[in-house]
Every structure is written in structure tokens, then in C-alpha cells.
Specification:
CATH architecture of the largest domain: 3-Layer(aba) Sandwich
Distance between the termini: 9 Å
CATH superfamily of the largest domain: Response regulator
Strand content: 15-25%
Largest sheet: 7 strands, mixed
Structural class: alpha/beta
Strand order of the largest sheet: 11-10-12-13-14-18-19
Helix content: 25-40%
Number of strands: 19
CATH class of the largest domain: Alpha Beta
Length: 394
């Protein structure tokens, strides 16, 4: 496993809207080094999230995580003595809307940093506008490698609190090899998604066993009987299913009802309660996915207080996406405090230099490519409930 991770991290290191004046009193555009500066009594942070549309589950959870973080920050005196004010935009699970929201937050609302979007496609769409405005953004769950590095160029204003697809793919390949002892794998992936394509490529490059069959589906498909019939007739030990919860839930349901009983592996796109609702809890056994957070495997002493506060506020257990967004907000706070300034340029510098940050999803140091170095968790399910969590360190 160490050899594979060494290879992974070695490889990892290898349009805008016209500017407008700010609409609120918290921030203004055009600091000396670009970006927005803080002038009022509050620090304005933008949220560019999928709050409606097909993947609203992710954005809604991330909004909850950020709001809990802001509540805690403001209750404890704010940042540099100023309260945090959130400016929220719904990108409607649409890439064009995400680009527009990024431009409006950075130019019209004058926020000093943006959290979101949640998904890979929307995050990529937002990059040109935050780059033009020189306002940093943190995606809590956009995992495609190309979000932070395009070609050989690091995206200066783009960061994330999650790990990237290549990391997840290698972890899942190792889990299949070493924990499940799977010698033969089937890959059933979303061929319309950069997220799934990246995960598939990483798994294929790291898996030691034989890939005996490759099948594809497309976003919004509902009936997977034809592909699953081919899969059922194959000789395999594990089914690798890179995709989001909407299709994954239906695939798991249909696979189990057809008598496909082998372990199913997926990535963090499984991490929504709707996946279990779609699949039916009775079908979600012997299912594993890479997560950034699990109460069964706390990363450090900050986890339990976070869980307690979240349950008190929302009356439910926190999810991976709640936790990633909570960390993203506290990463912004850490960046501001490290630079003793709340303008966009200072936050960008502080995020790039972030080191030994204690987050609920792990202890984070930002690498040269603006990706967090931290551990991952492979979460296992039995009857729709988390039944295991194995921490994997890079």
C-alpha cells in the first residue's frame, strides 16, 4: 500500500462577469492585491451551493455544516472581533448557475471567500469567475483532481476540504485487494460524469486483480436491468460503482433484487441518506464507500463536540458533507487568523499555507496543489446502517 500511495502523491505534485460595486456594507471590491477587502463590522463569506435540483442533498447538508460553524464562531467572539455574515446563493445543481453565482458573490456581494460548490462540474464552472475576481473558494466535496490543478498549473484561488478522486480510487483499489481479497472486479460507472471517470481511472491504475467486465450508465438513468444481467452472469468478487447517490441507490436496489450479492464499492458520492432510501435499507449490506468522516472512527478530539452540537441543532447525526463544510468554514477562519487580515488576498495566502489544522474530518495540511493531506475512512453498511469504519492514512 505504501508503494501505491508514494506513486499517487508523486504524480499529484508533477467567464467572468464585469466588476460591479458592492451591494452591501460588509466588504468592497478591489484590494491592492486584487480580490475583496473587509471594511465593515462583519466578514462576508459566500455560499455557492446546490440547494435545489437533482443533487440538492449535498448542498443542503453543506449549508447546515457551514451554518453550525458560523453559529459557533460568532458565539465565541467572531473572527478578529467581527461576526461572520453568510451570503447564500442556490446554484440549482446547474453548472451555468454555479458560474453566475460565483460571479455575483465575488463582484456584486463583495464576499472575501466562497464555500462551494459541492459537486465537481459546478466547481469547475465557478473557477474562471473566482479567478478573475481573485476571491478564494473552497469546495467541500468537489473531488476531481483537475479542480485544483489544470494541466500542470495550480489554480491559485481554488482549494478543497475533501481529498481528491485519485486518492479515493487508490484507497478503494487497495481495500478491494487487501481487505476484501477480491481477485476479480466489475466496474459499473457513470460515463457522463467527470467525477466517475476520474474515480474509474484511479481504481484501474491501482487495482492488482483482474477487471473482468466494464459497464456504463448515464446520469438520470432509472432502469439498469440490461447491464446488471451481464454483471450477474460474470465471474467476479467485487462490484465497483463510481457515481452519485441518485443512480447508486437504484443500482444497489436492482442488483440485490436480482440476486447479486457480492460486495459493492463506491466513493463519497454514496454519502447521502437518500442513497439508502432509494436502495432500501434491507439491500444496503456488504456495501462500502470512501468517506471523509465517521463517528465510528473519530479523527481527533474535535469530533465528539461537533457531533453533539450538530445533533442539538438539527436533531440528527451529522453526515460527511455536514462535516466537510464545517471544516471548510473553520479553514477560512484559520487562514484569516494566521494572516491577521480578512481580505481575499490574505485568505488565499493563509489557505495555501494551512498546516496542522485540526478538523473534524482529520488533521489537515494543505499540499502544494491545494489539496488537504489527511486520512480517509472506508465505511461499511449492514442493513442500511454504518457497521464498520476503517481509517486509511496516506
Amino acid at each position: 500500500m505504501k508503494k501505491k500511495f508514494a506513486f499517487l502523491f508523486a504524480s499529484l505534485f508533477l467567464l467572468g462577469a464585469c466588476s460591479a460595486g458592492p451591494s452591501g456594507g460588509g466588504s468592497s471590491n478591489g484590494g491592492a492585491s486584487g480580490g475583496n477587502t473587509q471594511e465593515g463590522d462583519t466578514i462576508k463569506i459566500g455560499l455557492n451551493l446546490e440547494l435545489s435540483g437533482p443533487v440538492a442533498g449535498y448542498g443542503t447538508q453543506e449549508k447546515e455544516g457551514v451554518e453550525l460553524a458560523v453559529e459557533k464562531i460568532n458565539a465565541e467572539g467572531g473572527i478578529l472581533g467581527k461576526d461572520v455574515e453568510l451570503v447564500v446563493k442556490d446554484n440549482k445543481s446547474d453548472s451555468n448557475e454555479a458560474a453566475t453565482a460565483a460571479a455575483n458573490l465575488a463582484t456584486n456581494d463583495g464576499v472575501v471567500a466562497i464555500i462551494g460548490p459541492a459537486t465537481t462540474g459546478a466547481s469547475k464552472a465557478a473557477i474562471p469567475n473566482v479567478t478573475k475576481a481573485q476571491v478564494p473558494m473552497i469546495t467541500p466535496s468537489g473531488t476531481d483532481d483537475a479542480i485544483t490543478v489544470s494541466g500542470d498549473k495550480v489554480q491559485e484561488y481554488v482549494f478543497r476540504s475533501c481529498f481528491q478522486d485519485s486518492f479515493q480510487g487508490v484507497i478503494l483499489a487497495n481495500y478491494a485487494d487487501e481487505t476484501l481479497s477480491a481477485k476479480k472486479a466489475v466496474i459499473f460507472g457513470d460515463n457522463s460524469s467527470d467525477y466517475a471517470i476520474g474515480l474509474t481511472k484511479a481504481f484501474e491504475s491501482a487495482y492488482d486483480g483482474e477487471i473482468v467486465l466494464r459497464e456504463n450508465f448515464t446520469k438520470n438513468d432509472k432502469d439498469f436491468q440490461a447491464q446488471l444481467t451481464k454483471i450477474k452472469n460474470a465471474d467476479f468478487d467485487v462490484l465497483y460503482l463510481p457515481g452519485y447517490y441518485e443512480e447508486a441507490g437504484l443500482i444497489i436496489k436492482q442488483a440485490r433484487e436480482m440476486g447479486i450479492e457480492q460486495p459493492i464499492l463506491g466513493a463519497d458520492g454514496f454519502g447521502d441518506e437518500k442513497m439508502i432510501q432509494l436502495a432500501g435499507a434491507e439491500n444496503v449490506s456488504n456495501v462500502f464507500y470512501t468517506g471523509h468522516f465517521s463517528a465510528l472512527a473519530p479523527a481527533n478530539d474535535s469530533v465528539q463536540p461537533f457531533i453533539d452540537a450538530f445533533k442539538e441543532k438539527y436533531g440528527k447525526e451529522p453526515s460527511t458533507f455536514n462535516a466537510l463544510a464545517y471544516d471548510a468554514m473553520f479553514m477560512v477562519k484559520a487562514a484569516i487568523e494566521s494572516q491577521d487580515a480578512a481580505d481575499s488576498a490574505a485568505i488565499t495566502k493563509g489557505l495555501a499555507e494551512l498546516k496542522d489544522f485540526v478538523g473534524v474530518t482529520g488533521n489537515i495540511t494543505m499540499d502544494a496543489n491545494h489539496n488537504p493531506e489527511k486520512s480517509a475512512v472506508v465505511i461499511g453498511f449492514t442493513d442500511g446502517k454504518e457497521s464498520s469504519a476503517d481509517t486509511v492514512n496516506p
